[in-house]
Amino acid sequence: MNQAIFGALTNGVTLMRADFSDHAFERHSHDCFALGATTYGIQRFRCKGRQYDSRPGDLVLFNPDDDHDGCRGTADGFRYTMWYVPAAFVASCVDGKRYFAKPHAADRQLAEAFGALSASLAQTPAESLRAETLMRAFLGTMLARHGERPQAGAGPAAIGAATLARVKDHIRTYYAHDITVSDLALAAGLSRAHLTRAFTAAYHMPPHVYLNAVRVAQAQALIRRGTPLAAVALECGFADQSHLTRRFKGSVGVTPSAWQRMQRGAAFTS
């Protein structure tokens, strides 16, 4: 059985508890921070070309736009708890290190504290001030221990960060269209081959993976507003509702209809 429970915490932070017996995430990314702890089994994933095995007591730490997949490491499946945290909220919590240094860390003490805090916040969702205060303190501790500042000169310096930023802007603007490599190359002023290589080298994912992340994020926003799923699919650039379902589940872990029930705080099976 593949089961997940979603809940809203505070300041746009979403809590997810997942129990997957055989679900496999396709390669994807998020427009926010995704951080959590494995609580059972082995959570196996690749991020930036490297494989990691997260076990109970380990942390999983994704920065915005970090490409990753995910699957069970053994036949027993895996369970985890995750927060999806807007980048602006993270930036407002700390003055120093604002990014995770690595996507995986063995830190049983912090993982146990994360689990206890998640359980406490889920039980008292109406206490916004308490929730925000505790979350800010915890994020500060986590980034102090496992964070880093972006390295000077890091990123797509070879062709200019501004050039590739235009590509991202183009994708975010025209995500509902059938974007081609030629469209992106024209926006960047590069050849098609150079565009794909440069984007992948800079962001550790090809453009189509980033496009899917943008579409899924937009779909979530529309679903929260009560937009019918068939309309969500068309407005976000998916061919039809079944296409939306495949890509959404591959990134989020559950179907759009199941995720829609998050608004009622319901548990659901994907």
How would you characterize this protein structure?
With 270 residues, the protein is α+β, with helices and mostly antiparallel strands. It is 44% helix and 24% strand. Strands 11-7-4-9-2-1-13 form a 7-stranded antiparallel beta sheet. The longest helix is centred in the middle third of the chain and has 19 residues, at 128-146. The termini are close together. The model is unreliable at 152-157 and 266-270 (pLDDT under 50).
Describe the structure using short key phrases.
alpha+beta, 270 residues, 10 helices, single chain
Distance from first to last alpha carbon:
8 Å
Helix count equals: 10
Shape, principal axes of CA atoms = globular
Mean residue pLDDT: 88
Strand order within the widest beta sheet: 11-7-4-9-2-1-13
Round the Cα radius of gyration to an integer and report it: 18 Å
SSE layout and pairings?
Elements (H helix, E strand, L loop, with lengths): L2 E6 L5 E7 L4 E4 L4 E9 L1 E5 L2 E5 L3 E5 L5 E5 L5 E8 L1 H7 L5 E2 L3 E3 L1 H16 L4 H19 E2 L12 H14 L6 H8 L3 H12 L3 H18 L4 H7 L5 H12 L3 H5 L6 E3 L1
Antiparallel strand pairs: 1-2, 1-13, 2-9, 3-8, 4-7, 4-9, 5-6, 5-8, 7-11, 10-12
